[in-house]
Design goal:
- By secondary structure, the chain is mainly α.
- It folds into two domains: 68 residues, Serine Threonine Protein Phosphatase 5, Tetratricopeptide repeat, CATH 1.25.40; 75 residues.
- It is built from seven helices and no strands.
- The longest helix has 22 residues.
- The mean pLDDT is 94.
Length: 166
C-alpha cells in the first residue's frame, strides 16, 4: 500500500487555495484531502479547519451522518467561539437541506429540527459577531425563507400512542 507524503510548509497557502477551488468545482472529497494534508503539517491551521468543515458539509448528501459527525468534531478544534457557532449553524442548515433532498418519510420533521438547531447556532454567532460581519444574519434569514417556502417543514406531531389495555 502506498504511503502519504507530507506537504512542505511553503506549499500550505497554495494548497488551501486549491481546496477552495475544488469545493467550487463540486469536488469536496478533493478539498477534504488537501485540508487533511495541511492539518498534518499545521494541526491548528484555522483556514484548513474551516475549509475542512465546509468540504464535509458539501458531502452531507452522500454520507449524511458520517460527514456531519466529522464536521462537528472538526468544529471543536476551532479557536474562535464565533466560528464554532457559525460553522455549527452551517452544518445544521446543510444537514436540513440534505435530509429534505432524501425525501424519505418524516424528512420534513427532521429537517425542521435541524433548521431549529441552525437558528440556535446562528443566534450564538450573531451575539458574538464582529462589527460589520453579518454572515450569521444572512444565514439566519436564509433559514427563515426556507421554512416560509415549505409549509411542510414543521415539528413532528406529539406522540399520541396509547398502549392497548385489556
Amino acid at each position: 500500500m502506498a504511503e502519504l507524503k507530507n506537504l512542505s510548509k511553503e506549499a500550505i497557502p497554495d494548497a488551501l487555495d486549491k481546496a477552495v477551488r475544488y469545493r467550487l468545482l463540486n469536488e469536496p472529497d478533493q478539498a477534504e484531502s488537501i485540508c487533511l494534508d495541511v492539518l498534518e503539517i499545521e494541526p491548528k491551521n484555522q483556514k484548513a479547519l474551516i475549509n475542512l468543515v465546509l468540504a464535509l458539509a458539501d458531502q452531507l448528501e452522500q454520507r449524511l451522518s458520517a460527514a456531519a459527525n466529522e464536521a462537528t468534531d472538526v468544529i471543536k478544534r476551532l479557536d474562535d467561539d464565533y466560528d464554532k457557532a457559525y460553522y455549527s449553524g452551517i452544518v445544521c442548515e446543510r444537514r436540513a437541506r440534505a435530509i429534505l433532498r432524501l425525501n424519505t418519510p418524516g424528512c420534513h420533521h427532521a429537517a425542521y429540527d435541524w433548521y431549529q438547531e441552525a437558528f440556535r447556532q446562528y443566534e450564538k454567532a450573531i451575539d458574538l459577531r464582529r462589527p460589520g460581519s453579518d454572515d450569521a444574519i444572512l444565514r439566519w434569514n436564509s433559514c427563515v425563507r426556507a421554512l416560509d417556502r415549505n409549509p411542510r417543514l414543521e415539528p413532528a406531531p406529539a406522540d399520541t400512542f396509547e398502549p392497548f389495555l385489556e
